[in-house]
Amino acid sequence: MTDQRMLTGDRPTGKLHLGHYVGSIANRVQLQHKYETFLIIADLHMLTTKNTREDIAKVSTNARDMVLDSLAAGIEPTRATFYLQSAIPEVSELNTLFQNLVTVPRLERVPSLKDMARDSGKEEMPYGLLGYPVLQAADILCVKAHVVPVGKDNHAHVEVTREIARRFNHLYGETFPVPELVESEVPTLVGTDGQGKMSKSVGNVIYLSDSSEDVRKRVAGMYTDPNRVRADVPGTVEGNPVFAYHDAFNDNPAEVADLKERYRAGKVGDVEVKDKLAAAINRFLDPVRERRARYEEQSGLVDEIIVEGTERTRREVQQVVFEVRKAMGLTAAYNQLRRKAERARKSRERTTP
Q1: 198 is in an annotated binding site
Q2: Which residue has the higher pLDDT, 181 or 34?
C-alpha cells in the first residue's frame, strides 16, 4: 500500500445490492490494497433527497447494513476506515469555505444534479442539492484524498473538487492534493425488471444479503425476451437481462456460451436459463454470506468499526481544517482580535481601583 489516500462511499439509504457490487464495490475491494482507504457513510448527502424524520431515523440501521455488506463483499476492516459524515462537523465548515470558490452557473452545468432532482420527485432544485458537489469536495479534501474512484456519471462532480482544490491552492498556497479520478469503466447492471438500472427505490434488485431462496425467487421473476412465447422460439440474447447477469456473475463461461447458443436456436427454455443463473449467483454470493455470518457473530463489531473510524477521521479532519484556516488567514485574524482584547482587559484591571 502506498501513502496515497482514496475516498469513496455511499449514502445510507438501505442495503447494498448486485448493482452496487458491479458498479463500485468490486473496484473498492481491489483498490483497498493499493491506497489507504476512507469509506464515507454520506448521510448529509442523503438529506438532499431524503430528509424526513423517518429517513433520518433509519440512518444508524442503514449505516450498519452498508458496512456489513461491504465487509461481506470483501472490504477488510484493517485496510479501510469507515466513518459517518454527519458526526464530523468540521466537514460542514470546509463546505462553507469552499462555497466561495465556485459559482452558481458552474454548479448548474453539472448534469447529474437535475437527474437527481427529477428522480427524487423535486419540482425545483433544493439549495443543498445544487451544492452537492461542493460538499463532496469537502468530503474528498478533508482527508486530502489523492484518488476518487467513480463511474462516468460522477466525473463532473469530482471535476468540481479538482477545480476547488486548484483554486484554493492558487489563492492561499499549496494545501491540497488535486485528486485524480480512478476510472471505473464498469457496466450499469440492469434491474431484474429490465427497466433501467438496479434500484432500491424501484425494487428491481438482488441484495448481497439475500438468501439462496430469495435469489431463486427474484431470478424466476426476471424479465427476458418479451417476443419469446415458447421455448422452441429463437430468442434474443443481446439486451436480455438474464444473459447480462450470466455474463456478470456466472463463473462457468462454457455454460454461458452453450445457453446463448441454444437460446438463439430455440433449443432451451427460460426456466433452465434462469435456474442456472440462480445457481451461478448463489455460487457468487456463498462466500459473501459466509463472511457476513462471521462478522454478524461478533456482536457490536460493526458499530465499533464505524465509531472508531469516525473518531480517527475526525482527528484527521480537524488538523486539515486548522491548516485551511491558517492558510486563509482566518486564524491570524481571530488571534489578533483576541490579543488586543486581552491587552485591553489587562489595561482596565491595572487602572481599576
Answers
A1: yes
A2: 34
